[in-house]
Amino acid sequence: MRYICSVCGYVYDEAAEQLPFSSLPDDWKCPLCRAGKELFRAETENAVTAETAGRPLPEISLTDLSAGRLSIICSSLARGCEKQYRTEEASLFRELAEYFRTITPAPENADLNDLAGEIHKDADHYRNVRAAADAEGDRGTARICVWGEKVTRMLGSLTDRYLKEGEDMLADTGVWVCSVCGFVYTGDEAPDLCPVCKVPAWKFDKVEGGRQV
Description:
Blueprint: E1 2-5, E2 11-13, H1 14-17, E3 40-42, H2 67-83, H3 87-102, H4 112-136, H5 139-165, E4 174-178, E5 184-187, E6 204-208, E7 211-212
Antiparallel strand pairs: 1-2, 1-3, 4-5, 4-6, 6-7
Helix pairs in contact: 2-3, 4-5
């Protein structure tokens, strides 16, 4: 049996490794992107489709979205523009993202468990949107959803680990964020290539004390 990392596509081949995937320790991580074991899927599992993705997507207008969600959308669009070397559009989307961020009210009684739950919900939403995009032949939206789901599932994995390990998780390791797609990597150095969007290491920012440096 072969198991595939849902973040970077690394393949764990039980025949080649001569060790069943189920025998790997719970804290085993993907050698390429360091995703948790729970983010691997058996190769025989079906790809997401419009029929299996979940409930139909409701129609949502931008006016229905909160300022916080609009900030996230504009930030993602800015990164997409940067990837396409559209610097003027990227700058405008960053301004919009910052504006919506400043008017976003602080959440009440939020904790890390709430955040973890919301992250996992967002990952499932990406699957639904991707299925709809595939059904319509919208390759651009489908690609965005592929990146978004991978990045979000990695964030979910890291958040779950932090809930279990606390600050020990961050001891003796660096935290790096891809400035293009938002992928988060833990390690002494940034990866040579982003496991999600394939940009080089210099596109990663190091996070120290909760801030990018």
